[in-house]
Design goal:
single chain; about 70 residues
Length: about 70
């Protein structure tokens, strides 16, 4: 029997500088992360795509990309 390795980690695909698409291992889009300059440095906004729609829901604003990525873990 041939098996393929599986992973539960989402992929982060850079669409342009400061903007990433978050993709589930099965291939469907989970949401987006966008970077913006803020008074204290850079801020990252995470938005989740509502299943079977084109609507995005804000998850929150974060001071690090890693914190924003953790929302999709």
């Amino acid at each position: 029997m041939i098996t393929t390795p599986t992973t539960s980690a989402a992929s982060f695909i850079a669409l342009r500088p400061g903007f990433w698409r978050v993709v589930h291992p099965a291939g469907h889009v989970l949401g987006y992360i966008e970077e913006a300059r803020a008074a204290g440095g850079h801020q990252f906004t995470a938005r989740r795509l509502v299943s079977n729609t084109t609507r995005l829901v804000d998850i929150g604003d974060f001071w690090s990309l890693e914190s924003a990525r953790a929302c999709f873990a």
